[in-house]
Amino acid sequence: MTTHTPPQKLTRADQQILDDVRDAIYSIEIVRTAHMPIEIQVADGIVTIEGIVQSNPMKQSILVAAASTRNVKKVIDKLIDDTHLELAVAQSLTEAENLNDDMILVTAYKGVVTLSGRVDEEGEDALAEKIATDTPGVRSVINNLECC
């Protein structure tokens, strides 16, 4: 797990909560070994967790660990799992006009979306890449689409 905590002036109590939440999340083996980009913020006992995770079960494990931590008043969930990201990009591609997405495969890993397959016309590969890039939660796009 990669945790990034933006610079913030914390009270002693919030710093303790941050340390305890980080320890609780890091104690989950699947989270620890996955090295997912996760950001944790604490303000007045309210914990905000943001980033990308591999799956919904991983997301739920993180949220439960944070919520179970002593002195945490509330957990704000801003996590996106790769499976959800794949579905969101695929849905956006399906809804796009001027794009035949029948031969496009969408995969995601740590927020990086890969587009594979074939498009029918020039420019559809660039359009698909733009649609994927504009999808909330996507960190970057690898465009492996072939044309015509």
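(ticket continues) Second input and output from the same batch:
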Amino acid sequence: MSRVLLIVNTNATRHSARRQREVQQLLSAHHKLEVATTGHRGHATDLARDAAESGVDSVVVLGGDGTINEALNGLADTGVKLGLLPGGNTNVLARTLGIARRLDLATAQLLRGLQLNRSRSIGLGRLNDRWFAFCAGIGFDADVVASVEERVKMKHMYGDWFFAACALNTFFRGYDRLHPALTIEAPSRTIRNAHYALIFNSNPYTYIKGRPISPTPGASFERGLWAAAPLSMKATKTIGFLASALGKAKKFTDGPDVAMIEDSEAFTVTSDRPISYQVDGDYLGKLTRAELSWSPNLLEVVC
């Protein structure tokens, strides 16, 4: 019988005690199951790391992308498999990897993957000392994430609509759109006077009302990091920038308003003032320098 640790975030948007009990019953019927509940920020990292060191075969997370990110930071490069059960609002990583959005179907997929010892090896991005699976952001989008996280109840109640409201409020009232602060130095090019940076390790970037938002269709877990750096934050330019991701084009293109980096294994972002940053939709604070890197085949995900 394989050893499995189930990490549960009871504060996740879609968590319910009944569903958690059902998951535990199904897992314990086939595996030696241990259960741990997160109690504070960063707790899932410690739980996953300790589990890996103790010899568990798999760590399963019932939570959102933030809890999953914490757990993978404890499992990266250990060989211990990560199982994903959607408990958040968007569940970007799970959906990108083809895991069902409904918890009962996702649990069935997980049990089948564990039974067959089946997993997918994915590359991870790294921002300073933090691994990320699908995205990171420096500047504007991180400020939006921070604004959303300040009002968790509103996030749970209104979901994507509340995120959109926070984005509009940040754009028009909360972000310095007149003084671009970022310089991005990559082997292929140097980008100066960028307003913010979006970094991609996979595609899509996120989902809105179930629809994938795919601004960098070439990005994948196997190819290195992509980055988009807007050079203008005029309202008309920004609307066009966002429309390129939401509309028929469905992708960002390099040009006078947006500078792109593709398939990079390392680059540096510096800011002339402290600026917000996030990884996998989790706000982490402010920085003035970010070392970005990418490593292949660093995480085994049950699929």
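Agent notes: The first strand starts at residue 3 and ends at 8. DSSP finds nine helices and 16 strands in the chain. Closing as not reproducible unless the customer responds.
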